[in-house]
Amino acid sequence: MTIKQALISVSDKTGVLEFAQGLAAQGVKLLSTGGTAKMLRDAGLAVTEIGDYTGFPEMLDGRVKTLHPKVHGGILARRDLPEHMATIEQHGIPMIDLVCVNLYPFAATIAKDGVTLEDAIENIDIGGPAMVRSSAKNYAGVAIVTDPEDYQPLLAEMQANAGALQLATRFGLAKKAFTHTARYDSMIANWLTGLDEGAEAKPAEAAPTPATFPAKLQLAFDRTEILRYGENSHQSAAFYRDTNPVAGSIAAYTQLQGKELSYNNIADSDAAWECVKTFDAPACVIVKHANPCGVAIDGTLLGAYEKSFKTDSTSAFGGIIAFNGEVGIDVVNAMNERKHFVEVLIAPSFTAEAKAALAAKANLRVLVVPISRALNALEFKRVGGGLLVQTPDNFTAQASGLKIVTKVQPTAQQIEDLLFAERVAKFVKSNAIVFCGNGMTLGVGAGQMSRVDSTKIASIKAQHAGLELKGSVVASDAFFPFRDGVDVLAEAGAKAVIQPGGSMRDEEVIAAADEHGLAMVFTGNRHFRH
Fold first, then answer.
1. Which chain regions cross the lipid bilayer (predicted)?
2. Where are the alpha helices (DSSP H) in 387-483?
């Protein structure tokens, strides 16, 4: 289909002048609206203002521009139906072969502090989506362009095909266009249904309060790759990114080398990355099957790696390693000396020497992710027939907020280790018990139905690693329901405990800690992770 006439009306004018110039150079007539028409005309292009084209001026403060039969008739008429073409000819409506439209900046508007309902409503596009949908519906005869990234490829295709665009191209543009309007409408629906009750009756200058959870939730993700399989080889899987991924999230990764990422690789990489980026000091986190099996901080990344590996060298084999700083050749050499097989290695950056050394391991997946502590606004978990939605667990205990509940007071060093242990426990599957000391994990008990069993497993892990628990500290992700868990960790050698508190048997648990000479602090917040 040869492009003879195009309608251009864009809010985001990135690259549109060059696109219009390219169309004009191929003999395409240009129609346009308002500011877009002025920009094209000022650049010396011959352009027909939409009001002159329809015989009706823009009206109602620009709310009505393109909602006219001469516009939509020229877009929607089926070229293959004689009765359509006869009607078009009868009313003197020229064909519009290409429509270039993007929509009012609703997202940018509602992102502003203090945005009012009136401001938001005025930035809901009407004519734009109507043209996009009309053009996409009639892709057999019209090319609809909503993405500036498509401008140059389309010009190149027209140049190579005597001004024509292929059916496959137009169909692809239509799919992108319907996605564009669907997401635009979803964004509006999410914002409006999330406003506080009575928002419509507030004074025009008052900013409404958006709710955390909209009454109707619309989600939008882009598929980035089809994975080889899911959690198991008989399951199919794909990876989708949020349309606007949070800065520093695993979805923002760049893969430097290695095999394709698997479903489990991505899930475990997320667990490792979310944990390591919470630390200020150089840190290393090793994850196996969604649980940290070794976490440490130190003055250097090498020191952090050495310490984290000691926690559970058996589980570290085939694990995911994440660092919160630039990885150098010293770290890579240490991994090689141990013959440490790793599935995925993640860091904000790697030195040139480290990259060269890692290149010898062709299958090792190496990811670069920008460092940031930003969290998703909401977290989602699919269940049968529904979706669980929650705000992220963004609580991290601080020394000033700890409540000391035992006769024994923790030392400054114990406080430091307790805060480290609590931060690690936040990323361990419940029930979680984490023994720590000197800025490293000593034993991790994860995912048990009984907190006592988690405590015993953590102790056994430390024994297998040859690590001394005498004088260690312990973090529990939730309160101890009975004193037996305290008895076990005291028997293992721990001297201080951090937990949320809040059990009906807190006094019994505190009494047990006093009997054993333990220091115990409450945080007031638990960290269940399922």
1. none
2. 412-425, 451-464
CA distance 207 to 215: 19
Residue 289 is a catalytic residue = yes
Out of 202, 289, 310, 361, pick the active-site residue: 289
Regarding whether 364 and 424 lie in a shared domain, the answer is: no
- Using CA atoms, how far apart are residues 509 and 480, in angstroms rounded to an integer? 7
pLDDT digits (tens, 9 = 90+) for 27-54: 999 988 878 888 889 988 988 887 777 7
Task: Compute the distance between CA of residue 178 and CA of residue 77 in angstroms, rounded to an integer.
Answer: 19
Structurally, the chain folds into a number of domains equal to: 3
Residue with tokens 């080398």: 257
Copy the structure tokens of residue 454.
């988690």
- Same domain? 413 vs 489: yes
Three-state helix/strand/coil letters over 6-23: EEEECCCCCCHHHHHHHH
Domain hosting 469: range is 399-522
Residue 223 C-alpha from the chain's centroid: 13
* 244, amino acid identity: N
Q: Give tens-digit pLDDT for 278-332.
A: 999 999 999 999 999 999 999 999 999 999 999 999 999 999 999 999 999 999 9
Burial 55-74 (b: 16+ CB within 10 A, else e): eeebeeeeeebbebebbbbb
Are both 321 and 408 inside the same structural domain? Answer: no
What CATH number should be reported for the domain holding residue 426? 3.40.140.20
Domain identity same for 320 and 427: no
Task: Return d(Cα 6, Cα 27) in angstroms, integer.
Answer: 10
Closest CA to 346 of 411, 420, 425, 284: 284
196 has pLDDT over 70: no
Tell which residue, 379, 436, 397, has the closest CA to residue 413. Answer: 436
Question: For residue 104, is it within any domain?
Answer: yes
DSSP assignment letter at 429: P
Q: Indicate if 177 and 268 belong to the same structural domain.
A: no
Smallest CA-to-CA distance from 173 within 143, 129, 152 is with 143
Please report, for residues 25, 57, 169, 435, the alpha-carbon distance to residue 14 in angstroms, rounded to integers and kept in the order given: 19, 26, 22, 55
d(CA 185, CA 176) in angstroms, rounded, equals 14
The CATH number that applies at residue 55 is 3.40.50.1380
77 and 164 co-located in one domain: yes
| Overall pTM surpassing 0.85 (yes/no) | no
Catalytic entry in 137, 176, 202, 340:
137
